[in-house]
Amino acid sequence: MIDGQPYRHLGEPRPVSGEPTIVCVADHASNHVPEDIELGIAPELLDQHVAIDIGVAGVATRMARRHSIPAHLATVSRLVCDLHREEDHPGVVPEKSDGYLIPGNIGADIEARLARFHRPYHAALKEWLEAAQPDLIVSLHSFTPRMASTDEARPWDVSLLWNTDDRAARHAIRFLRDEGLNVGENEPYSGAELNATMNRHAEAHGRPYCFFEIRQDHITTRVQQSRWADMLSDVVGRVALALS
Question: Which keywords does this chain's UniProt record carry (predicted)?
Fold first, then answer.
């Protein structure tokens, strides 16, 4: 965490005349656990998908630095407080994740976690977006190729999620399929059921967005992250123009 805040910014939105303003949001970009919070889990779990969206920080960083798409990134693990959940969601401070028990969260002070992590993160995001007035929001997530608890195979290379607003997603799906990718639609779960951050900061304000779920084994290395940053930056640029 930076200065005790559960978020950090890479770049700042600078509207350019004639060009769309695009920003990126990554709710699960960190596996950081503050020293005063004991989760009671094996340390190696912090490098797995239950604690962080693997590869997302690398992709977002390259999109910000190489393609001028500034980013709002979480700086705390989803196991401490899941910023991509509503405050009253039972998993906002998860006691289990993909079959793993999180003992330190059983009986945790949820209100304290919300006040320390969830509310500052979303208050800052709200202010940042209001200042930026983006033409398109990119929400970056990644998914594990196979769930440990269900042994469920997930074959998609990338998927687009949405709740009720699919304006941007439809364009992105077409552009990504033109790249020869296996593109899911509301997979491996539906945005109608889990779309907390974009429901709050995009759909509630009529802001178009692309909610990407990238398969984690595609973005584990720097080379892969660079490739996906280049590809997604090109895709969202075309989506923003298609929407204008």
Answer: Hydrolase
| Residue 2, in any domain of the structure | no
Q: Check if the beta carbon of residue 24 is closer than 8 Å to that of residue 78.
A: no
The domain spanning residue 220 has which CATH number?
A: 3.40.630.40
Residue 205 is predicted with a pLDDT of 97
Expressed as residue numbers, the domain containing 30 is 7-243
Give 33-86 pLDDT, tens digit per residue.
999 999 999 999 999 999 999 999 999 999 999 999 999 999 999 999 999 999
**Structural domain includes residue 26:** yes
pTM: 0.94
The confidence score (pLDDT) of residue 98 equals 82
Domains in the chain, number: 1
* E strand intervals along the chain: 7-10, 22-26, 71-74, 96-97, 100-101, 136-143, 158-161, 183-185, 209-215
Q: What confidence category does residue 171 fall into, taking pLDDT thresholds of 50, 70 and 90?
A: very high
The residue length of the chain stands at: 244
Burial letters 51-76, b for 16+ CB under 10 A, else e: bbbbbbbbbbbbbbeebebbbbbbbb
Tell me which residue has tokens 């940042």: 128
- The answer as to whether 1 is a domain residue is no
**b/e per residue, 17-27, with b = 16+ CB within 10 A?**
eeebbbbbbbb
Instruction: Based on DSSP, count helices (H) and strands (E) in the chain, helices before strands.
Output: 6, 9
SS3 2: strand
State the Cα–Cα distance between residues 195 and 198, nearest whole angstrom.
Answer: 6
Output the CA angle 50-219-200, nearest 5 degrees: 60
